[in-house]
What we know:
Largest sheet: 6 strands, mixed
Number of domains: 3
Amino acid sequence: MKTPLKYGVNPHQGKAFISNSSEDLRVLNGTPGYINFLDALTAWQLVMELAASTGKASAASFKHVSPAGAAVAAPLSSEFLNSQFLGSGDPSPIATAYARARGGDRMCSFGDAVAVSEKVDESLALLLKSEVSDLIIAPEYDETALDILRRKKSGAYIVLQMNPAYEPPATEQRQLFGFNFEQERNSVLISKDLFLGTSPEVAESLLVGTIALKYAQSNSVCVAYDGQVIGLGVGQQSRIHCTRLACDKADKWMMQFHPKVQALVFEKGLTKPDKANIVDQYLLWDELSYLEQKDVISKLKIVPESISRKEKVAWVREFDKLCLSSDAYIPFRDNIDRAARSNVQFVAHPGGSVRDELIKNACQEHNICLLETGLRCFLH
Length: 380
């Protein structure tokens, strides 16, 4: 199979194509580009591994070759539906998996690549119809769902179908600056055996977070809760910056369920991205300039009362069994101190550093359960 691409990584990079000796990947709609396929094929691996490890329908939302979110299927509460600006209904399991994956970070999921582990049904297609998204990859589509997706983005929405039985070669190659690289593919399976001694609920969250890291550009740190990613820091040169990003995002995710956020009343005509931006600004209210506050107020029917620092700290403490995973060992205790501020109670990392004892001591001080997996999962 040789498929011409719209263009390479940038529009000025032509002569781009993707090739494979099999016919396992099909383009059902749209004209994919280089990055579209990078996102789709990386996200596909994540959801298939997550589904195999948990036995649940799984979904991922990808941007720039890293997950913005990932989750397994679970019922959606009324508070979650409100936080995601979704109406009531009875979504299918695969639709709930994607709603939770996208809802892990609505802002970063804007214009995402979607991957799901099961057939795309009408429920998921209708959810995607109202979201800003660039493509989807799935094992199968029902007729109604495919018709809905083919009409998205004026017919330009990219729809890919992947054979779930496809197995890649044991080795992988790449070329950089005229030099060829070859290595064994990272085929190690992340299973619940890595997290023995934890509850099934905690093990599932650690699975989601750690598998997400396996397909995120390193360095990376992930915070997961209730079977979904709620904060991911990727591509940073220092571990603490990954941790700060992941925990800051997790804090915002938890705060969207605060009664004051849930009570925000938006002016008519605002899109979901508009509303997500307003919520993000509202949570930073005391840091905004007068003009920024004025802009937010103009889009709300009722002038909101800001949430104090004390209220934010107390609200985050309401969430139980938060898990943090790191794709490589945690070198300094500042990562643990930052995680504790977000009420993280379980930390998984490979271990193997000369500073391991310092990390163990920091976790004991914060009453955090530390798990050493012995497994590094860099992606470069």
